Amino acid sequence: MDKAIFLDNAATTRTDPEVVGVMSEWLGDNFGSPATLYTFGSQAKQAIEQARQHLADLIGADQKDIYFTSGATESNNWAIKGVAEALEEKGKHIITNQAEHHSILMPCRHLEKRGWDVTYLPVDGDGLVNPEDVAGAIREDTVLVTMVHANHEIGTIQPIEEIGAITREKGVYLHVNAAQSVGHIPVDVAALSCDLLSLSGHKFYGPKGVGALYIKRGVRIVPLLLGGGQEKKRRAGTHNVPGIVGLGKAAELARKNLGPEMERLTALRDYMIGLIEKNMDDIRLNGHRTRRLPNNINVSIEGIEGESIMLSLSYPTAANARPVFVSTGSACVSGTLEPSHILLALGLPAELAHGSVRMTMSRHDTREDADYALNILFEVAERLRAMSPVYKRGSKKCASGSSGEGCDCEAAS
Ligand SMILES: *Cc1c(COP(=O)(O)O)cnc(C)c1O
C-alpha cells in the first residue's frame, strides 16, 4: 500500500499514528472496564472523560452532551428513531432531503412503514437544500428535521445555520449528520443551532467503529440500545475504551490542525479541479464549486462508466507503478450498476450520473501525488473513451460544469 495513492478518504481515513499510539495503551495490560468501581477501571473512566472533553471542544459542546456510539450509522439511527419515539404523542412528521446518506434514509423509510410521514426535500443542481423549503415543509406535527452537514459524495456544504435558525424559531428539533464535516471544516453546535449531531471517528483519522451523538441538554430522545447503565443510561453496552480514547486523540489533533489543513487542502482541491478542467473535455463538476469540503472532487466524465475508471486506476501497470484508489457514484453496494441517488437528485442525465469519479484527499496527499494520479486519470479516460461506442467528443451534454452554456444539467438546478 505504501506507493498507492489513496483518494477515497470520504469512505475512510488512515488512522493517525499518534491515535494508534494512545489506543495501544488500552489494548494490553490496561484492560479494566470503566464501569467497575475498583481503581483498575477508574483509569479507563478518566481516559474516557478526557476523550469526551476533546470531542466536546472540537464541536463547541458541553462535554455532558456527548454520548459515545459505534459510529455515525448508529448515531443517525438513534437520533431519528429515538426522537420519533419520544415525541410520538406530539406528531409523526419528519423532514429530510433526497440526497441524504443511507444511514438517514433507511431509518426514515423504516418509520414510514410504521405510520410516520417523511418529507424528502429536493436539492438543486449543486446539491443544496433551500432553507425556505424547510420552512415551508414544517407542519404542526413535525418533530424532527434531519439534514446532512456536508454530502459524502459531492462535498456540498448545506446552509445549516439558516436551517437551524428556522427550526429553532419553530420549535422543531434539528439533527445534523456531520460525519463528513467534523475534523475537516469548523463545526460548532451553537453556530449551527442544532439539537443533535452525529460524528464518526474513522472519517477524520480516528479509529473505525466508534463515534458519538451530541444531544443538547433537555432534548427528548429514547435510547436505541437498552441494557446496562452506561452513558447515563442512554446508551447501554461496555465502552469501547481503545476506540473512544483514539477518537478523543483524533479530535485533539483535528482541532490543532484544522485551519492550516483546510487551507492546504482547499488549494490542492482547486488546483486539481483546474487541471481536470484544462485537460478534459465533456466533464461536469458535481457539487457546489466553493461551498464544498476542502478535500472533495467529484466529476462526471461523459462517455465512460465510473466503475471502469475506478478499477482501471486501481491496477498498477508497468508505466504506472502506483495504484490510485478513487470512488464512483455508479458502483452500487448491491452489485447492480445503478447511478447513485445523490447524482440523480442533482438532476444529472443517466449517462453523466454513470460516469462519476470521486476523489477525496487526505492530510497526507501532496501536489506531487495529485499530479501523478491525475495524469493516470487523463490517460485512462482517453483510452476508455476511445473504446466507447457512445462517446462523441464535444457533444456538449455538460461540457463546462453546472454553470456551462448549453449544459443539459443546468435545467435541473
Ligand atoms: C461514513 C458516513 C456515515 C457512516 O458512518 P460510520 O461511522 O461508518 O457508520 C454516515 N453518514 C455519512 C455522511 C458518512 O460519510
Which tags fit this structure?
2 domains; alpha/beta; binds pyridoxal-5'-phosphate; 13 helices; globular; Aspartate Aminotransferase, domain 2; 3-stranded antiparallel beta sheet; 7-stranded mixed beta sheet; Aspartate Aminotransferase, domain 1; 413 residues
Q: Can you put this structure into words, describing what you see?
A:
This protein is α/β, with parallel strands linked by helices and 413 residues long. It has two domains: 5-10 and 258-412, Aspartate Aminotransferase, domain 1, CATH 3.90.1150.10; 17-254, Aspartate Aminotransferase, domain 2 (3-Layer(aba) Sandwich). The protein is 39% helix and 13% strand. It is built from 13 helices and twelve strands. It has helices spanning 17-24, 39-59, 72-86, 102-112, 131-137, 160-170, 189-192, 230-233, 241-279, 306-314, 341-345, 350-354, 367-387, and strands spanning 5-6, 66-69, 93-97, 117-121, 142-148, 173-177, 196-200, 211-215, 283-285, 296-301, 324-325, 356-360. The strands form three sheets. It has a seven-stranded mixed beta sheet with strand order 2-8-7-6-5-3-4, with helices on both faces. Helix 10 crosses helix 13 (367-387). The longest helix has 39 residues, at 241-279. It starts with a strand and ends in a 26-residue tail after the last helix. Residues 399-413 have low confidence and may be disordered. The structure holds pyridoxal-5'-phosphate (PLP).
